[in-house]
Each structure stands twice: as structure tokens, then as C-alpha cells.
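Lab manual, section 2.4: Encoding a predicted structure.

Procedure: take the sequence of the chain (150 residues), apply the prediction step described in section 2.3, and record the output as C-alpha cells. A sample record is shown.
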Amino acid sequence: MIDKQYRLTKDGVDNLETELAKLEHRTKEVAEDIATARQQGDLSENAEYQNAKDEQRKIQHRIKEINAILASTEVVDEPDSSDEVMFGSEVKLSGGVSYKVVGSLEADPLEGKISDESPIGRALLGAKQGETITIDLPAGSKQFIVESIS
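Recorded output:
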């Protein structure tokens, strides 16, 4: 299932642990739903029972996935220095664009979190404040100035 080492920020690990706790709690609720549905008789035509069993399988799969991820994760501390862009850095670019460089599991472009493995993340890593970087995008190359790093 998970066969590589992942890098996550502390926030990323915390989010996974929170999700895991919610799923474990939901497992108990689904078990109760299954027990209730069983009491209704014929399980082969019981939609509530089938839906609850499907949800139980999905939850168990996600719990296993999260546990595997957490077992193979390196937690990367937020950078102390803002001299250059590193994993965990928050970067403001010209044009009002801001990103936080995170691991692939935490990436969420809509929240401004980009993977260190993405074209933008790779272009940012190692960049210094005031430096002009070129990012190769599907629509072509674009240049940005690194305005600030935190």
C-alpha cells in the first residue's frame, strides 16, 4: 500500500492523527449501525446493512493507510532560518502569490500548500529572497521574484 518514505510537517502529522481518531470513533458508530441493521432480518436485501458494511470497509482501509503513512513518515521541523526556501517554508512571490512548501501528502494548492516534488516546489527549494526564479508550467515558463521567506 504505502511503500515509500514520506516527509510531513508537524501540522501534517497532527492532521493525520486527528483524522485517525475521528475514523476510529466512526468505526464504533458504524458497528452499531451494522448491529441495528442485522436485527431487521434478511441481510441479502438489507440496503442499510450493505451500506454500513461498505462504509466499514472504507474506514478500515483508510485507518490502515494512515497507520502505514505514519509508520513511514519523517517529520521535518519547520525551518528556523528564512535565508532560503526549504521544506516547510512559506514563500511570498511577486504578483501576490504565496505558497507553503510541504510533502506530497499535505499538498493542497487551493490552500497554498504545494508539494516539494511539484514543478513549483522544486523551483522554489533553495531560492533566496530577492532572487528571480523560473517555473516551468504546462502553459509555459513563468518568472517570479521571491519577495519573502518565513
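Check your result against the sample. The domain at 90-149 is CATH 3.10.50.30 (Chitinase A; domain 3).
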